[in-house]
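Proteins fold reproducibly. Next comes a concrete instance:

***
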Amino acid sequence: MVLSPTISDRSIVVAAKGQVSSDLAGETAILNIKSGVYYSLDPIGARIWSLMQEPRTVADIQDAITGEYEVEPERCARDVVALLEELHAQGLIEVKESSSA
């Protein structure tokens, strides 16, 4: 069993290759090509997904979401990390630790 890395605000995340996504009226549908499973993201999840099309730190994503939506920073941090952990567990994103301290 491979343990996934802990996702922190300094982690760098990016959408993994091997899947296809499409915008559906503000929501996003993702097809994992390897597993053949579809995933659906609500509008906020879809925004997070769009931010991850290029490598980005979790802190940058959290800053973007708190700037665009009415959400407390602590809740945003928890919710973003929870979504990223789920996407990582499904093989939809890659997670790396930032090399800068």
User: Anything to note?
Assistant: Strands lie at 11-15, 19-24, 27-32, 37-41, 56-57, 93-97.
